[in-house]
Amino acid sequence: MTETAPRPTLEAVAARAGVSRATASRVVNGGDGVREPLVERVRQAVEELGYVPNQAARSLVTRRHDAVAVVIAEPETRVFADPFFALQLRGISKELTAHDNQLVLLLTEGRDDHARVARYLAGGHVDGALVFSLHLDDPLPRLIRGAGIPTVFGGRPDWHGGPEAAVYVDSDNRGGARAAVRHLAALGRTRIAHITGPLDQTSAADRLQGFRDVRGDADPQLVAESDFTPGGGERAMRELLARRPDLDAVFAANDLAASGALRVLREQGRRVPEDVAVVGFDDMLPVAEGTDPPLTTVRQDIEEMGRIMARLLLRRLDPNATDDPPAGLVLPTTLVRRASA
Predict the structure, then answer these.
(1) Which has the least CB within 10 A, 6, 142, 189, 279?
(2) How far apart are CA 193 and CA 222, in angstroms?
């Protein structure tokens, strides 16, 4: 058996620095009112002893937990299968780590999980929340407001009874959709179909509106609702081909749905882009560069969205911040041309 060395205590730090325990505590926990020479002595003692502050005790002093909840309103089977969430979480994690904050991931498998999430947020475990992939009838915004913690949303809020001044980060979904459809029209395509995302999410609704901005006179038979998954894209593509076998282009509301559409087109002997041109949305490289042919798509910087969400929340949590974050921030999108259109 090996014996574990005793963990250095705050008393040991104070003794090494030659200061009182109260002074050492103020320095370690970020308090004010300590002269700079004493601060340096305490910091040196912390480094020499390898002292790790007790987070619970530190929270009592600072009233901060240095932890942020990331709430994704989707089941884990969807979150871990869709690279969109991995990219957004990576951006969030990088920003929080750079500011020495922990990420606490909370998923909602179903409606029964909403009360659990709300209790956790209200229980004083985290300083704030980042929330995304909400649906229009989702009770989470109301429950989170009841928890009383600062929150930043991913995506434009549009739920019933939502706060008008909610802080959010989104991409230009409508403008990106317009660019996609205009590109297809510029290629001479006249029977352009649209595979939507779930229309109870603002991103999908905005992309459908962008399609209609350009093709307002389109046959309703050229629009099929999907769910942002490859399987949903397959089902919608089969539906569209059955309704309008003469279609010559497809704008899919995300890359995963586009990948499903491409598989169906290949199965049914349609050449891409010669017979049917296809454009997606997201530019998730593992998907967009891995399709056959590689996918023309609208790029949104998903990782940067995550970074900015975390940055805005940390600004709201900073007691020294002198300005309020913008209520809504919409990031630009760009069309990336590959072989599918």
Answers:
(1) 6
(2) 4
Contacts 24+ apart (CB under 8 A), 24-28: 25/61, 26/61, 28/53, 28/58
Return d(Cα 274, Cα 261) in angstroms, integer. 15
pLDDT over 50 at 60, yes or no: no
Instruction: Provide the sign of the torsion angle of the four alpha carbons 7, 9, 15, 17, taken in this order.
Output: positive
**CA–CA separation, 337 vs 341, rounded Å?**
7
Contacting residues for 158 by C-beta, under 8 A, at least 6 apart:
136, 202, 205
- DSSP class of 333: -
Sign of CA dihedral 34, 36, 41, 47: positive
The H or E element containing residue 244 is none
First-to-last C-alpha distance (Å) of the chain: 67
User: Quick one: how far is CA 299 from the chain centroid?
Assistant: 15
Owner of token pair 């002198």: 322
Cβ atoms of residues 313 and 153 within 8 Å: no
Task: Output the CA–CA distances (angstroms, integers) from residue 181 to 184, 185, 291, in the order listed.
Answer: 5, 6, 20
Tell me how far the alpha carbon of residue 151 is from its chain's centroid: 13
Measured CA to CA, the distance from residue 207 to residue 279 in angstroms comes to 13
Give the pLDDT confidence of 214-271 residue by residue, as tens digits.
Answer: 999 889 999 999 999 999 999 999 999 999 999 999 999 999 999 999 999 999 999 9
Q: What is the DSSP string of 17-71?
A: HTS-HHHHHHHHTT-S---HHHHHHHHHHHHHHT----HHHHHHHHS---EEEEE
Pairing of strands 223-224, 249-252: unpaired
List the one residue out of 252, 108, 121, 129 whose CA is nearest residue 193: 252
Q: Global pTM?
A: 0.81
State pLDDT tens for residues 296-323. 999 999 999 999 999 999 998 887 777 7
SS3 of 77, please?
Answer: helix
